[in-house]
Design goal:
single chain, mainly alpha, D-Maltodextrin-Binding Protein, domain 2, 2 domains, 8 helices
Length: 190
């Protein structure tokens, strides 16, 4: 990981996970974040193109989705760095209108229902592998190691690492602890 100091970080877009995790990683390593070199690539294919063109050096992306590129020798995995937040999060301001909150609630129900249905399918790994061009064995490993939410509920302790990381980067208002984070309405479960 020491090779990454001063590297050009490929990011999908500003505010994306790949953008934020570059800052979190640099901060954890003790590197200054104000001078990070960021290259907007749009998506995984854009990162492939940026690497081939020599315009980016590192890309933080999900390891199973990049595994075919590693296996083919197009990417080199030099390590793993876990984000201090879940892969997918729905956030809403405390003052959201009741009607809009209901629409968001329904969208969450649909996502959770679809996730439950997918997990229940005996051929889930095969379906995902075919859809994304992955090996079934890799998808099976991913399914075994992925923790799936059954409901939407976030405690102050769950949201603390997210608030602290994003607050330290100036993305969210700086907060001292999880209770303050929730009290300021930075995050709220629906």
């Amino acid at each position: 990981m020491a090779e990454l100091k001063g590297a050009r970080y490929a990011i999908s877009r500003k505010g994306s996970g790949s953008h934020l995790i570059a800052f979190v990683h640099a901060r954890v390593e003790g590197w200054p974040v104000d001078g990070l070199s960021l290259v907007t690539v749009g998506n995984l294919e854009g990162a492939v193109e940026a690497f081939a063109a020599g315009t980016a050096d590192v890309f933080f992306w999900e390891k199973f989705m990049t595994k075919p590129l590693v296996d083919a020798g197009r990417f080199r995995r030099i390590g793993e760095f876990k984000a201090p937040w879940p892969a997918f999060v729905f956030c809403a301001p405390r003052g959201m209108e009741k009607e809009r909150r209901a629409v968001l609630g329904r969208a969450l129900e649909i996502v959770l229902d679809e996730a439950r249905a997918l997990r229940a399918r005996p051929n889930a790994a095969q379906l995902i592998a075919e859809r994304y061009g992955l090996a079934s064995a890799d998808v099976s490993e991913w399914l075994e190691t992925t923790r799936w939410s059954e409901h939407v509920a976030i405690s102050a302790d769950d949201i603390a690492p997210v608030c602290m990381a994003l607050g330290s980067l100036g993305v969210l208002p700086r907060v001292v602890d999880a209770a303050e984070c929730v009290a300021k309405g930075v995050a709220q479960a629906t």
